């Protein structure tokens, strides 16, 4: 039983580390197109679009991939995310997560 618990913990740790593997500098280079709606620093001036600054990295990556893959649909975001790779999504997520919270 202890071996199963340890193995499960190791697998979970590897997934959480992988989810936080984005390169914020590479994400910043890709984020210029996001600024039109989400603001230049990830803080939207329009209440219609969410702030991205300070969001959890894993959450952002998951949402970007969901828009890209069609499991989450939005007439604006789905086409914006369509051409992004997993690395792009993770890098963008790392960048926006690294910014100060946009409250």
Question: Would you give an account of this structure?
Answer:
This protein has 103 residues and is an all-alpha fold. The protein has one domain (2-98): Cytochrome c-like domain (Cytochrome Bc1 Complex, Chain D, domain 2), CATH 1.10.760. Helices cover 58% and strands 0% of the residues. The protein is built from 6 helices and no strands. The chain has helices at residues 2-19, 24-30, 35-38, 57-69, 77-81, 86-98. Helix 2 (24-30) packs across helix 6 (86-98) and helix 4 runs antiparallel to helix 6 (86-98). The termini are far apart. 24% of the residues are buried. The model is unreliable at 13-17 (pLDDT under 50).
CATH superfamily, by name, is Cytochrome c-like domain
> The biggest beta sheet, please?
none
> Distance between termini?
45 Å
Shape: globular
**Element string (H = helix, E = strand):** HHHHHH
Strand tally is 0
Fraction of residues in β-strands: under 5%
Q: How many distinct folded domains?
A: 1
The CATH architecture can be named as Orthogonal Bundle
Point out poorly predicted stretches.
Answer: 13-17
Structural class: mainly alpha
Rg, Å, rounded:
15 Å
Q: What's the overall average pLDDT, rounded?
A: 87
Q: What count of helical segments does DSSP give?
A: 6
Question: What's the CATH topology name?
Answer: Cytochrome Bc1 Complex, Chain D, domain 2
Helix content: 55-70%
CATH C-level class is Mainly Alpha
């Amino acid at each position: 039983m202890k071996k199963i618990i340890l193995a499960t913990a190791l697998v979970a740790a590897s997934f959480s580390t992988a989810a936080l593997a984005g390169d914020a500098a590479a994400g910043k280079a890709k984020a210029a197109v996001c600024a039109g709606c989400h603001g230049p620093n990830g803080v939207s001036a329009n209440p219609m679009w969410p702030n991205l600054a300070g969001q959890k990295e894993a959450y952002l990556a998951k949402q970007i991939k969901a828009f890209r893959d069609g499991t989450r649909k939005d007439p604006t975001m789905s086409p914006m995310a369509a051409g992004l790779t997993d690395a792009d999504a993770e890098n963008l997520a790392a960048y926006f997560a690294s910014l100060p919270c946009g409250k």
